[in-house]
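A student in our group prepared the protein record below, which I am reviewing. This is what I was given:
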Amino acid sequence: MSARRTTSSRPRRRILARVLLFLFLALLVFGGWAFWLVHDRPDGNAVEVELVIPRGATLDDVVRVAREAGVAEHPTALWWTLRIQGVAGSLRAGRYRVPGDVNALELADALAERPAEGEQLVLTFVPGQSVWEDARRVEALGVGPAAEVLALAADHRFVSETLGLPVGPERPARTDGVQQTYLEGFLYPETYFLPLDATPEAAVRRATTEFKAVWKELTTRYKADLMAVTGRYHLTEGDIVTLASLLEEEVRAPEEAARVAGVFYNRLEKGMRLQTDPTLVYRPADVGREPTVRDRKDGTNPYNTYAIAGLPPGPICSPGRRALEAALRPERHELLYFVAKRDGTGAHAFARTLDEHEANVTRYLRGGE
């Protein structure tokens, strides 16, 4: 009986030994692979890159920031390294500077240290957003109530004299009861780093200072274009910013910005109404709403370019660099109309005559009926 047990137990021991050997080898391979992942460096050089970690960032947020900066060669490995190292619990918001060829372990160590610049508020204004949306962003970040931003926006003297922005003369009260917004168009769309005790006025000053810097750069570089546009079309610099805001709202295909600008300038020169849909919904209650045919008949909206001649009283959103540059350097052509193709590309079909335009409308908006 004992001999049989000994004989029968041998295959079991061999199987167990093989299983243990397999597990050992698998663990060895996995360990080697994991070791390689956390020590592997991104392709490129050691040029320093900056990582901006916002307040309340999660591990997923940190990995996303690192990936976008090009220093997360293996995002999943970085995520687990940060978790195992306990970085999530000690992470501070701010700017971190790391070598461009940092590996996951080194990055985890860097993020465990204090940031190069202490904890800050990260405020982002987006191209195409209105002052009402920007004010809500300021409030959501905890800087201060949106009402404070809007009060500054309505203060013509503060905007024109204190901030030195080209907003033109004070405008009469809007007939639709909406408060005037002289800051519109001048809160430059960018990401700003503010101290924790920043005020709404500090946020406004920071964004408008950036606008003035960008505007000075563009108008200096394209001085001849600026003089040509202001002279030919009898516009002020503030008018050009207003036209740029229309471009920001209308243009989805970047290569069309200067062409659409040319259409607007051609229509202005011929005394034609601009008839641009985004002006139909320039009200705080209408943010994000699609314009309707009925809106075109709304005579209470002073920004309605179907009802008024020329440009609207002021910008309708914050234009980015592309739109500002296109407004300064419009494409020269004889086009007077455009309509969205609605093919997913954001492109438009352009026309010189009303007949051509109506044919495009039939083709792209009415399905060729």
Notes: The radius of gyration is 29 Å. The domain at 334-369 is CATH 3.30.160.60 (Double Stranded RNA Binding Domain). The chain has 14 helices and six strands.
